[in-house]
Amino acid sequence: MASNYPVISVVIPAYNEEEAIAKKLENILDLDYPREKIEIVVASDQSNDKTDEIVNSFTDKGVRLCRLKKRGGKVAAYRNAIPDLRGEIVIFSDATSVLDKSSLKNIVRSFNDAKVGCVAGLLNYGDPNVVNIGKGEHRYWRYNKNINRIEGELDSMTSVSGTFFAVRKELYPLAMESHLAEDLIVPLHVRRRGFITVMEPEAVCFESTVQNQDQEIRKRSRITIQNLHGLLSNLDMFNVFKYGLFSIFLISHKLFRSLSGMFLLGAFVLNIFLLHRSGFYLAIFISQVVFYFLGVVGGVWHKNRPRVINYIYFFCLSNYSILIGFFMFCFGHKVVAWDTER
Q1: pTM for this structure?
Q2: Does the first or last residue of the chain, that is N or C, have fewer Cβ atoms within 10 Å of its Cβ?
Q3: Spatial contact of 149 and 161, defined as CB atoms under 8 Å apart
Q4: What are φ and ψ of residue 303, in 5° steps?
């Protein structure tokens, strides 16, 4: 019965999403959740195409446009929209993602547990066979999904996918700075407040993978920059004596992953200085050279790459992107607003 469901607010961030926003709104309106219990808001970050016009055409269906007065990025768009929301649960969903029919009911039910403050939906990427990078990202996300699930079962997830997640309205950190990533800061804030973040595997959304090398580099480097800034602004969360397993997860999952490019570069350089020590170090060095050579081969072999070479290529590309992001972070670069990757 409808009375058993809480009022929820679905917030869709948008910047120049004229090609996707109508389909997205139709998707939300078609979901299996009591219509009178859903508030739908599009947070437009100063879109200058037909996005806002399309959103306004859905006004008679209960959709509301919340437009920033000046461009400020996704976090600023959320900060502008959230105070006026009427839902006790806020659900964030990107304009290009497609939610499964029962996804809203499934993500909301996790909040029946009073200690749950944030819930991550299950992100499934579109056909990974379309492009080779898509195959690599699909496999990476399966690996990451298992890590997130285990974190949630043992303590609390350290991050969610910004594509689809939900949080209790009173736990959303409105003071979050615009250059940080909500998919990291929200779970950290939730854990600091004494609540946990979990994954709901039956709250499913579908998203397309990035389509080329340049998109992957921009995306991964941006995520690295935002993660490093987010971790730096939450150093207290590394206190193992206060946060226990969560701190260990945060260090091993988020911090070390953001530094993985530097670890690999350091290992390669150090190996050069150890070559004269023994044949063991020579063998390790040759192995590294062969591995990275296969990554380069994967970069120029665009069609019908063998699976092994494709995975090596994606590993090298991802860590190269992370390394770029690390150096950009060191030079003080911040990401506030960006064009979505298509």
Answers
A1: 0.90
A2: N
A3: no
A4: -120, 140
